[in-house]
Write a structure and sequence with these properties.
Elements: E1 2-9, E2 12-19, H1 21-35, H2 51-82, E3 91-94, H3 98-105, E4 111-118, E5 132-138, H4 142-155, E6 159-161, E7 171-180, E8 183-196, E9 218-224, E10 238-251, H5 258-263, H6 269-303, H7 310-331, H8 342-370, H9 376-389, H10 394-403, H11 405-425, E11 429-435, H12 437-453, H13 459-462, H14 464-468, H15 476-480
Parallel strand pairs: 5-11
Antiparallel strand pairs: 1-2, 2-4, 3-4, 6-10, 7-8, 7-10, 9-10
Helix pairs in contact: 1-2, 4-6, 6-12, 7-8, 8-11, 9-11, 10-11
Length: 493
C-alpha cells in the first residue's frame, strides 16, 4: 500500500492511498480459500469447487467487502502512523466511474482513494501557575434565608372562600376566553384557572381589572399584549377576555412552623431553613463558579494563540448562528432592532466560534495530560438527569444515546470540561473576595454586556446558552479525533 501526501497547507491535509491490484487479488484469494470448504454450490461436492468457479461466483462480493473494510479501517491506521489527529472525520473520495469500479472489483486495476482532513494543531502547554483569579463569595444572612422561607410558606399557604369583593392577595378561580378582533385565539381559553391577584402572573392590566370582582361576576377585560410577547401573532395586539368568576378566596395567615414543614414533606421548620439555605448557597455558588470559569478562560485565551481547524469553527459557528436566527424569528425582531447589522453580528459570532474551538482544544490537551477522565458513573448520572427532564420518553432517549455516539459525546464533554476546570483550580492562584449579592449579580450582568453585547446585541439573548458552554463540545473532537453536537464564551463547550 502506498500512502502519498498530496497536500499539506496549514492544517489541511490530503493523502492519496494506492493498493496495487495484485495485493487486492491476493487478499481476495485468501478469503476465497477460507470459504471454499464452507460454501455449498449445486453440482459440486463440499470443498471441491474449482477456484475459478468460486472466484466467478463470489469474487466481486468479496472484493466489495475488502474495499469497505479498507476504507473503514485504514484512515485511522494511516493517521496513527503519521502521528496526526483529524479535527473531524476524514472525507474519503473514490472513483465514481462504473467501468473503473468494475475493474477494481475484478482485481484488474489498482484501488485508489484519497483522504481529505484537517489536523488538530499541536499545542505546547504552558504553566498555569501564572493564572490569577478572584473568586467572589457571598455571605448568606439569616434575614435572606428567612425571606426565602417566607416565600416558600406563601406559595404553600391555604385559601378560604370568602364573600364580597376580591382584593390584592386574594385568589380568584375563573373561566375565561381570550379574543383578538372578536375571534378566540389558541391558548387563550381556560376553565377553573386560579390566579392570586397581585402576583403578576398574567399580562399587565389583567389582574388589576379583577380587583373588586365577586363570585358569579362576568367581566370583559381589555388588555394589550407586550410588544416582545413570545407569541408573534399576539405581540402588541389588543385583546379581550370574557371572564366568569367562579370563586374568591382569602389567604390564610402564614406561619413558619413544624406543621408547615410537614405539609411540605419535611420533618421540621429547622430542616426547611437548612434546605433553603443550601439552595441559596447553590445558586450563588453557580454564579461564582461561572465568573471564576470566565476568568480562567479569558486568561487561557490570552495565553494560547494558534490556527484553528476551519471545519470545527464552521460547525460551531453554524450552531450559534442557527440559535441566533431562531431566537430572532421567535421574537419577531431584526438585527436593526438590536442596534447592529447581520454582517456585524456574523463577524462577532465567528470570533466567538473560533474562541470556543481554541479553548476547547486547550482544555482537552490540559485534561489529557493531567489524566482527567469521565467515569461511567458520572455518565450515568448525567444521562439520568436528561431522562428526568422528559418524563414518559425515557426509552426513546436511552435508545437515542445508544444509537448515536455523538449524543453520548455531547453529555461527556461538559463533564470533562468542568473536571479540567477543577484541576486548574488546584494549580492557579485563587483569591477569595467577599461581595454582596447585588455586587455578584451586577458584575455578572455587566461583564456579559460589556464584553459581547456592544458589538452584537442579539447575542445577549440568542447566544447566551453558547456563551455558558463554550468548550463542552469543542473539547470532544480532540478526544475522538472525529466530529462530535450542540454547543460559549464561558465554556469551551
Amino acid at each position: 500500500m502506498q500512502v502519498i501526501e498530496t497536500l499539506a497547507e496549514g492544517l489541511k491535509r490530503e493523502i492519496k492511498v494506492v493498493i496495487p491490484a495484485k495485493d487486492m487479488e491476493v487478499k481476495m484469494n485468501e478469503r476465497l480459500a477460507d470459504v471454499k470448504d464452507k460454501v455449498r454450490i449445486n453440482g459440486f461436492r463440499p470443498g471441491k469447487v474449482p477456484a475459478a468457479h468460486l472466484k466467478k461466483v463470489y469474487g466481486k462480493s468479496i472484493m466489495a467487502d475488502l474495499v469497505n473494510e479498507i476504507v473503514r479501517e485504514q484512515p485511522t491506521a494511516i493517521l496513527a502512523e503519521r502521528g496526526e489527529k483529524s479535527a473531524t472525520q476524514p472525507e474519503i473520495a473514490m472513483t465514481e466511474d462504473k467501468d473503473e469500479a468494475e475493474q477494481i472489483l475484478a482485481a484488474q486495476k489498482d484501488f485508489e482513494f484519497t483522504l481529505s482532513y484537517e489536523v488538530l494543531p499541536p499545542i505546547e502547554l504552558k504553566s498555569s501557575k501564572g493564572i490569577k483569579i478572584t473568586r467572589e463569595v457571598v455571605d448568606i444572612s439569616e434575614d435572606e434565608v428567612n425571606e426565602q422561607v417566607l416565600k416558600v410558606a406563601e406559595s404553600a399557604r391555604s385559601y378560604e372562600t370568602k364573600k364580597g369583593k376580591a382584593a390584592n392577595g386574594d385568589r380568584i378561580t375563573m373561566d375565561y376566553v381570550g379574543k383578538v378582533d372578536g375571534v378566540a385565539f389558541d391558548g387563550g381559553t381556560d376553565q377553573g384557572a386560579e390566579l392570586v391577584l397581585g402576583s403578576g402572573r398574567f399580562i399587565p392590566g389583567f389582574e388589576d381589572q379583577l380587583v373588586g370582582a365577586k363570585a358569579g361576576d362576568e367581566k370583559t377585560i381589555t388588555v394589550t399584549f407586550p410588544a416582545d410577547y413570545p407569541a408573534k401573532n399576539l405581540a402588541g395586539q389588543e385583546a379581550t377576555f370574557d371572564v366568569t368568576v367562579k370563586d374568591v378566596a382569602a389567604p390564610a395567615e402564614v406561619e413558619i412552623n413544624d406543621e408547615l414543614a410537614k405539609k411540605l414533606g419535611l420533618e421540621s421548620a429547622d430542616r426547611l431553613k437548612e434546605i433553603v439555605r443550601g439552595q441559596i448557597e447553590s445558586q450563588y455558588g453557580s454564579m461564582t463558579r461561572q465568573k471564576v470559569k470566565r476568568q480562567i478562560l479569558d486568561q487561557l485565551d490570552e495565553m494560547y494563540k494558534f490556527d484553528t481547524p476551519a471545519s470545527l469553527v464552521d460547525a460551531e459557528y453554524n450552531g450559534i448562528w442557527n440559535q441566533v436566527a431562531n431566537d430572532l424569528a421567535q421574537s419577531g425582531k431584526t438585527f436593526e432592532d438590536e442596534d447592529t447589522t447581520e454582517e456585524e453580528a456574523r463577524e462577532e459570532y465567528k470570533k466567538l466560534a473560533e474562541r470556543r474551538v481554541r479553548l476547547g482544544l486547550v482544555l482537552s490537551e490540559i485534561g489529557e495530560k493531567a489524566g482527567v477522565e469521565v467515569s461511567e458513573d458520572e455518565m450515568q448520572r448525567a444521562i439520568y438527569e436528561q431522562l428526568r427532564q422528559y418524563p414518559g420518553q425515557e426509552k426513546q432517549i436511552l435508545d437515542f444515546f445508544r444509537s448515536q455516539p455523538g449524543a453520548a459525546a455531547s453529555i461527556r464533554a461538559p463533564i470533562f470540561e468542568e473536571k479540567v476546570i477543577d484541576h486548574l483550580l488546584t494549580e492557579i492562584d485563587v483569591t477569595d473576595k467577599k461581595v454582596t449579592k447585588e455586587e455578584l449579580l451586577a458584575d455578572e450582568e455587566g461583564e456579559a454586556s460589556d464584553k459581547e453585547a456592544k458589538k452584537a446585541a442579539p447575542k445577549k439573548k440568542a447566544a447566551a446558552k453558547a456563551e455558558a458552554t463554550e468548550g463542552e463540545e469543542a473539547a470532544a473532537p480532540k478526544k475522538k479525533a472525529a466530529p462530535k453536537k450542540k454547543a460559549s464564551e464561558d465554556s469551551a463547550e
